[in-house]
Amino acid sequence: MNALGYDLRSLGRYTEAEEIHRREMTLKQKLLDGNPDDVGLQADLLVAVNNAARLLSHQGKHAEAERMHRDSLEKTIRLMGPDHPDCFITMGELASDLRDQDKLEESQITYKRLLESRIRVLGPLHPDTLLTKSNIATLRARQGHQDEAERLYKQVHQEELEVLGAKHPSTLNSLHNLACAFADQGRDEEAAESFQKALDLQTEVLGRKHPDLLNTRMNLAISLRAIGRTKEAQKMLRETVDLAQSKSEDCDAGQLRSLSRLAAILSDQGNYAEAEKLYRQELHLTIKVTGTDSPETQKCQRQLANVLSQQDQYEEAINFSETALSSMTKTLGMEHEMTLSVLWNLAMSYRNSHRLEEAEPRFETLVDTKAKILGRDDPEVLESLVQLAWVQQQLKNYVESEKNYRWLLASQTKNAGPEDPFTLMLTHNLASVLNYQDKVEEAETLFRRAYTMRSKILGPDNPLSRHSLQCLADLLDESGKQEEAAELLRESGDSPDDAAEHQRKVDNELRKQLLPDPMRKKA
């Protein structure tokens, strides 16, 4: 049964493999229940537990794997003694589970205990001892101790060269890790040289198209770009994308992470179409490996939704965001920061696809939930409230929009002052809402303030300054003050054609930005 589970895992059929391993545990537990003193059956059960825990770790189910590894380690020590090889393997896997849940201090303690035991039992140059030392180096890098990580990686690489040779997989891995340590410290020339050396040796040993080359190629491309060798970096990145697309079905968990990193790099470069292809592959494989509701699947759905939104493919982005939100609300709760991040992106997709009736309740939930967690004056709450007020304005829910704009304007004026560009955006939008409700006198006052201060700060020819001017002139004209309106336009050098052109520019700003102000960040 263990062999069947292993074969299923190697074929990527992880759900079936997990079922086999759990069934194996159940059967061996029943046998042990009938013969509780049988040492052989106790050992068999521990093997089954470790196999199941190892598969759970591979699927990213680290919390459950941790519990199983802890129980197994305790029983293995009692049954076989603390120096048995199975104890060392289980301890290493437990340390890894702790690391992957960001329990870094406990992981460090466990790795240190394992290293001391392996040095004592196996010697300082045994491959398993060197592997443990390398894992500690990786952990120290995660903890921000880059100089110590570099020292350990150098030591491990030198010792593996002596013991295993330059072309052994472990030696190649330590060379790659050393290059990462250089890169983490901004020593990009040394990093590029080491990544290139590692890639050349990996290619010689494994072949050009082996999936293990993904991470090395990608890191080399990043280092080449950092030292100004842009053309080489782009060529390397292109080759990496081709390799990822051709070998994605063969990816294991580590290579899946490389696929995700590569997609993120492409997205950061604005190459959303290529990033989308890789994220789709990653999502397909991640569901296959970890299931539909796993944190890894949720992350893939979020990332894919984001790159789809960047390409204005809002309908599909909404579908992925809704799926991720439903799953994350169950597993993490609505108040978790990642759940709220997905809700924000979902609300923005509804907004940008003009489905404002569906955007409004999402923004209301964001405002209420974030205010409960962070307080009403927190910038994240204000950001969501701005969106809510704007959506309400477009839906002609002017009473609620006015109430929210007034609160926002008072808060922003207090915190940033009356001349802040964001304050002036709120001033202009509140004036618009008041004007729609025929509160003409206050609207005129606010339009004048917005136009005067925007002209002073942004310049009179800025599209937003002209927009406030045109809105003020329109209000004056509709209020019977046609001469004053015409005089304003003459003094500014504006004309009906100019106003129409400036309105077009403002409309473009509205499409590109969260709200009609260039100081606001994009979604």
Top keywords for this entry?
single chain; 523 residues; Serine Threonine Protein Phosphatase 5, Tetratricopeptide repeat; 25 helices; 0% strand
Explain this structure:
There is one protein chain. The protein is mainly α and 523 residues long. Among the domains are: 122 residues, Serine Threonine Protein Phosphatase 5, Tetratricopeptide repeat, CATH 1.25.40; 128 residues, Tetratricopeptide repeat domain (Serine Threonine Protein Phosphatase 5, Tetratricopeptide repeat), CATH 1.25.40.10. 81% of the residues lie in helices and 0% in strands. The chain is built from 25 helices and no strands. Helix 1 packs antiparallel against helix 2, helix 11 runs antiparallel to helix 12 and helix 14 packs antiparallel against helix 15. It is elongated. The two termini are 51 Å apart.
Layout: helices, strands, pairs:
Blueprint: H1 2-10, H2 14-34, H3 39-58, H4 62-80, H5 85-100, H6 104-122, H7 127-142, H8 146-163, H9 169-184, H10 188-206, H11 213-226, H12 230-247, H13 253-268, H14 272-290, H15 295-310, H16 314-331, H17 337-352, H18 356-374, H19 379-394, H20 398-416, H21 421-436, H22 440-458, H23 463-478, H24 482-491, H25 496-512
Helix pairs in contact: 1-2, 2-3, 3-4, 4-5, 5-6, 6-7, 7-8, 7-9, 8-9, 9-10, 10-11, 11-12, 13-14, 14-15, 15-16, 16-17, 17-18, 18-19, 19-20, 20-21, 21-22, 22-23, 23-24, 23-25
